[in-house]
Design goal:
By secondary structure, the protein is mainly α. It is built from 13 helices and no strands. Helix 3 packs parallel to helix 7. The relative contact order is 0.20.
């Protein structure tokens, strides 16, 4: 029952906001859903857009399991994107699988190292992880754009702050023509399954959960809490680096200064909405990807302003997140009054 409350509440909010904006709600919503889910190509397009977001969200979930509330996904995605773009453009003589694997591995290593450094500062020097990771976004974005506009810049590129295009050997093979769905979907599927198993079934995941729920109890049990926290942030950053690599190798073909604006913040939001649970977070990624794809078509066909589309998405997410709690409140109030009667 409660599982149905969130989507119903979100749908009602969407209808009210679209109607308030002077548009026909049901035809507008159907146009968007047709674009995002109406055909095999539409589904492939929606899935392809959500793949980097899914990996980044899982990375944030890993960090949150140990109580390390990082908000540095945005900068780490940029680091992964730049490193993979440089590797894909300048490293040659490799077969496609090796070139792709090297680009992803270096992206994960670079972003993971950055995140590990933030974790070390938090675990050993008590530097506030929210503040340090927040500020790191500005530093990392500035450095990435600086290098992409300087030493790695492609003067012939139309996009600002763009690197040279990656070599064909670094590009993922497309599965469906006229879409950006590539074989990277299998890599993301493996990462999702692996993340679920590590977080929910492995000893490592159990220790991370114990630290996140009660660090004092974990310490009294003999666990090296700082070491495990740094490890979780390392894995978190590596996932964000892979997300950045996917943007380059499976979609854009090069790094540009606006390649991932806002993606890290969306990953943080979805990880929170998923309550740091991998399956629930992945479901929210799917919902958001559908809404994002639908909003793009609605803006084009129904001429709904982009500001209204963003408002609708944000309000739907708020309503959907609050709906189960509202149901609990209503039920508990009803039971309490019934008991008093």
């Amino acid at each position: 029952m409660k599982a149905l409350v969130a989507p119903v509440a979100g749908l009602l909010v969407a209808i009210i906001l679209i109607q308030a904006g002077g548009f026909q709600p049901l035809p507008t919503i159907l146009v968007g859903l047709e674009y995002s889910l109406g055909s095999v190509e539409a589904i492939a397009r929606t899935v392809a857009w959500g793949l980097p977001l899914c990996v980044a969200t899982l990375g944030v979930v890993v960090a949150y399991r140990t109580g390390m509330f990082t908000v540095g996904a945005e900068g780490q995605i940029y680091v992964g994107a730049l490193v993979s773009a440089v590797t894909g453009a300048y490293v040659g003589g490799l077969v496609p699988v090796a070139h792709q694997a090297l680009s992803i591995a270096l992206a994960a290593l670079a972003a993971g190292a950055v995140s590990a450094g933030l974790g070390w500062l938090a675990a050993h020097w008590n530097v506030d992880i929210v503040l340090s990771s927040l500020l790191s976004n500005y530093v990392l974005l500035g450095l990435c754009i600086y290098f992409a506009s300087g030493v790695f810049n492609d003067p012939a590129a139309e996009a600002p702050g763009a690197t040279l295009p990656i070599q064909p050997s670094a590009e993922f093979l497309r599965l469906i023509p006229r879409t950006q769905l590539t074989v990277a979907v299998f890599l993301v599927a493996v990462l999702c399954i692996g993340a679920w198993w590590i977080l929910e079934r492995s000893v490592v995941g159990y220790r991370w959960r114990m630290i996140g729920e009660s660090p004092r109890f974990a310490t009294s049990s003999g666990m090296d809490v700082p070491r495990w926290q740094v490890l979780s942030l390392t894995v978190s950053g590596a996932c964000c680096g892979v997300a950045g690599a996917l943007l380059v190798l499976a979609s854009q073909g090069r790094f540009a200064s606006e390649i991932a604006i806002g993606l890290g913040w969306i990953a943080v939001m979805l990880a929170l909405m998923g309550r740091a649970k991998p399956v629930l977070a992945i479901l929210w990624v799917g919902v958001y990807s559908v809404m994002q794809a639908a909003s793009r078509k609605i803006e084009q066909v129904a001429e709904v302003p982009s500001d209204l589309a963003v408002l609708v998405i944000c309000t739907i997410l708020i309503a959907a997140a609050a709906a189960p709690g509202a149901v609990d409140l209503v039920v508990s109030t009803w039971r309490r009054r019934r008991g008093m009667a």
